[in-house]
Amino acid sequence: MKYLDDFRVPGAVRTLVRRIREQGGEHTFMEVCGTHTMAISRAGIRPMLEPSVDLISGPGCPVCVTSDRDIDTAIAVAKLPGVVLATFGDMMKVPGTEGSLADAVSEGARVRVVYSPLEALQMAREDRGAKVVFLGVGFETTAPTVAATMLQAREENIQNLFLLSFHKTVPPALRALGSLDEFSVDGFVLPGHVSAIIGSDAYTFIPDEFGIPCVITGFETTDILQAVSNLIRMRTEGPAVENEYSRAVRAGGNPKALSAMEIVFEPVDAEWRGLFVIPGSGLALKEDFRDFDAGAWQVELPERAISGCRCGEILCGRIKPPECPFFAGECTPESPVGPCMVSSEGTCASYYLYCQEEE
Amino acid sequence: MCLAIPAEVIEVLDEDVALMEIGGARKQVNISLVDDVSTGDYLLVHAGFAIEKVDEGEARKTMELLEELARLDEVP
Ligand code: SF4
Question: SS3 of A279, please?
């Protein structure tokens, strides 16, 4: 299919930028997807739209919103005898109270970086003596893959694969942001791949309850500019949810993926790092899967400390990374103080890598 | 982290697994989360799983729109 991944059309970029300029006004839009954050920074979209459009980054990077408490738990579990912890590579450097998973490895913990939860399942099949624990982090894009893996493990009667589920879901977080008194964002650029799972209908409460327009879009420069232009138009025409990513997103999402999640997980309250506890925004294993739940194991956790990281304010759109006193000094991707500097999709890391001259 | 990569199905190996061409390499991908997969389909791949089909008709419409926008750029 020639139309698959080459949506880079320079002439279309120029037309869209001109159109946005002609639309005028002043707007603050929030993108709620780490992959968008990275695409916007890398393609230099912010300077194209200045000064009329301000693009700020919300809590769209699952690594960045994993609480320090959850990192502490993962480290404590990884240090238990007989355990091998399997995790996506992004999680290795995220600081907990006393260091990161990478530090735990140097202290003897067994941690393996995997690309897919299926690799953790394979590890459990091959080494029945080990307790393989998969560190489940990610939004609705990732949660169904983990759910399908747990279903497969149950079908094969694999008894040495476990899950630490720190999965989070996007709509409850958007509701929590929208409900903040001081929240003043004029539109949301909604994530493409989370939406491929949950569908565009999952967001109708945002225009209905908060009067904020939303556009689901893809990851090319043209996709993002189109979303911005549509958001500006909806500010006068009235708010709705528009789907600019119809090549991958349907109104009802992916029913098979949703049903796998539904069988395995149930919503729980979850703490978002730097923010607060958001009701119903986490995914815990259901009663039926309790035997797989490494979250129920007894571990000792260190006393929590305050790092001074200002990720929380960044994720609500109150400040930009350079306003944090640690930014680019004490806090860099090589030696991160906060989680937003760890993943390349973190707001601080994407500013650090691509946007320093802009400031 | 929610990045999913569009890739083409080379061969459906069984109900749950397809061989796909990803970044020039052939890889086995779990297709249990997507319905009715056949050779030549484009799927979004994330963490070893196909998470959704790419709709060819919609992709073409988007491309046509972009080409239209690009033509507007050439009008003086
Ligand atoms: S620069 Fe570092 S310390 Fe400051 S908010 Fe970002 S991640 Fe946190």
Answer: strand
Considering CB atoms only, which of B34, B58, B66 is closest to A222?
A: B66
What domains sit in chain B, N to C, each tagged with a CATH number?
5-72 (2.30.30.140)
The backbone torsions φ and ψ at residue A242, rounded to the nearest 5 degrees and listed phi first, read: -110, 145
Residue A272: DSSP 8-state? B
ipTM: 0.88
How do residues A200-257 score in pLDDT, each as one tens digit? 999 999 999 999 999 999 888 889 999 999 999 999 999 999 999 998 999 999 999 9
> What single letter denotes the amino acid at residue A46?
R
- For A1-6+23-296+303-352, CATH number? 3.40.50.11740
Q: For residue B42, list chain A residues with Cβ-Cβ distance below 8 A.
A: 1, 4
Q: Which of B20, B30, B24, B35 is nearest to B50 (CA)?
A: B30
CA distance A61 to chain B (A): 7
B47 and A142 within 8 Å at the Cβ level: the answer is: yes
pTM, to two decimals:
0.91
